[in-house]
Amino acid sequence: MAKLHLITYGCQMNEYDSERVAGLLRDARWELTTDEREADLILLNTCAIREKAEDKVFSKLGELRRLKSSNPDLVLGVMGCMAQLHQATIQSRAPYVDLVFGSPAISRVTELVDHVRRERRPVMDTGEGPLVKITARAPSASRLRAFVTVMEGCEKHCTFCVVPTTRGRERSHTPETILAEVRGLVADGVKEVTLLGQTVNAYGRDLTPPTDLGELFWWLNDVDGLERIRFTTSNPYNLTPRLIRAFRDVPKVCEWFHLPLQSGSNRILARMNRGYTVERYLELIAELRDAVPDVTLSTDIIVGFPGETDDDFQATLAVVERVGYDNVFAFRYSRRPGTPAATMPDQVPDDVKADRNTRLLAVTGRLAAARSTRLLGRTVDVLVDGHSRKDADVLAGRSRCNRVVNFDGQGQVAVGDVVPVTVTEVLPHSLRATLAPHAEEALCTSR
Ligand code: SAH
Ligand code: F3S
After folding, report:
1. Closest C-alpha to ligand 1, atom 4
2. What fold does the segment set 145-373 form as a domain?
3. Could you tell me if the CB of 144 is within 6 A of ligand 1?
């Protein structure tokens, strides 16, 4: 069998796509290898969301060039968002790359690779394509947790974001194809799915007949053997009371909500074209907490968006304090070619961005630690997915609120089980716990 080495950068959707590519190629007798030196085909699944992500890919390509000169038969491919956005730059900066293709061409990956090997000349495919659900999965994929892309693309046009260009317009997969995929995953042992979409809470509005994410939750809830449903990323603009009700009512949907804020200043939110105000965002948070008091909240924030003053940034800190997130992903604004914000005046200098980033992380770290301590002494359900990295006798898993939990299974618990445990210690990145005597005590458990 020929050997494939796959390197994935970026988001969960890329991880999902990489699994598909590995699965499709496996069906065409390509075997995965973790050693790039023994590969016949190396594919880089790339991200274009920030400049740093792109720099990493070009530096990796530079390294792989040496491998290619010692093994001229090696096929080198670049796929994903950078392939879509920078086809010409890749060709000029790394002319030794044999294959460049965007996400619409993933279903044809086998054909594209065959083409390069047969013709011995570069192949480029970054056009539009039909929406195809690929169910092939890499043998290395997790048996317990899986991502499921429920919609592709985005048509929101936030002024900083390149996704609408790299991933095209918004298109939902039908509930039937998603259900079939999830049933197949569960038959393979998967217990938890994370539904993926750039604006996952806008799911289904483009279908005939239209549907929504809440309805999809109910369908998936009926899949026997599936324990947990998560979803990301939601956009505040599309967050409806109907979805909040489904979030509260569907038993298998976990109490974990990622709701990007981006900025706590209305002036900056308007320049970002986010379609909501701080007041509206806080109303939504209040509704979520009203519906699910124990909800775990996380968010994305950009610091140093063009025109952001120190007052704007202070306003962001104030919202972060007020919400008290469990987790915050902070990003320094990065100019993306072709986006409106890239040419806005008042770009913020790098040192100011770095300073705001540090200040934001100090606040979010303090708040997250305070949020974690509330778990001390409480009982949570854990889906056991393996052994602790530090101690093989200790089991590891995740709570419904998505925290890593380590505990002693006392010989009674196996990987794949869902068990209630009581939290005995709160560490910065994990929780320690002991087996709880009674399942019915569990917090964030199925209601
Ligand atoms: N669809 C998601 C976002 C996808 S991108 C949403 O609606 O929020 C993931 C995160 O990357 C974004 O939430 C944003 O915080 C960050 N991001 C996107 N473009 C960026 C840029 N140009 N510079 C810095 N961060 C960016
Ligand atoms: Fe990007 Fe905004 Fe869509 S952040 S992915 S354009 S919702």
Report:
1. 198
2. pyruvate-formate lyase- activating enzyme (3.80.30)
3. no
> Please, which pLDDT band fits residue 438 given cuts at 50, 70 and 90?
low
**Between β-strands 30-32 and 2-8, what pairing exists: parallel, antiparallel or unpaired?**
parallel
Q: Whose CA is nearest to atom 2 of ligand 2?
A: 158
Best of 12, 14, 161, 331 to mutate for ligand 2, by most ligand atoms within 8 A of CB? 161
What pLDDT, on a 0 to 100 scale, did the predictor assign at position 445? Answer: 44
User: 2-125, superfamily in CATH?
Assistant: Methylthiotransferase, N-terminal domain (3.40.50.12160)
Which of 123-137, 196-210, 232-246, 423-437 has the weakest average pLDDT? 123-137
**Helix or strand run (H / E) with residue 359:** helix 350-373
CA distance 158 to 362: 27
Nearest to 10 by CA among 48, 59, 64: 48
Where are the domains positioned within the chain?
A: 2-125, 145-373, 376-435
pTM: predicted TM-score of the whole model, two decimal places: 0.93
Q: From the CA atom positions of the chain, what is the Rg in Å?
A: 23
Q: In terms of CATH architecture, what is 376-435?
A: Beta Barrel (2.40)
Q: Considering only residues 139 and 300, tell me which one the structure prediction assigns the higher pLDDT.
A: 300
Site to probe by mutation for ligand 2, drawn from 152, 154, 171 as the one with most ligand atoms within 8 Å of Cβ, is 154
Residues 422, 443: Cα–Cα separation, whole Å: 10
φ, ψ at 43 (rounded to 5°): -115, 130
346: phi then psi, degrees, rounded to nearest 5? 60, 40
Q: Are strands 296-303 and 327-332 parallel, antiparallel or unpaired?
A: parallel
Q: Find the mean pLDDT for residues 35-61.
A: 95
Distance from residue 223's CA to the centre of ligand 2 (Å): 31
207-215 average pLDDT score? 97
Using one digit for the tens of pLDDT, what is the confidence trace for 400-415? Answer: 999 999 999 998 999 9
256 has a pLDDT exceeding 60: yes
Is residue 158 within 8 Å of 134, Cβ to Cβ?
no
The bound ligand whose nearest atom lies closest to the alpha carbon of 303 is 1
**DSSP per-residue codes, 401-434:** T--EEEEE-TTS--TT-EEEEEEEEE-SS-EEEE
What is the layout of strands, in order, in the sheet containing 228-232?
A: 145-149, 192-196, 228-232
- Give the residues across from 300 on adjacent strands: 329
Q: Whose CA is nearest to atom 7 of ligand 2?
A: 156
CB atoms within 10 A of CB 343: 12
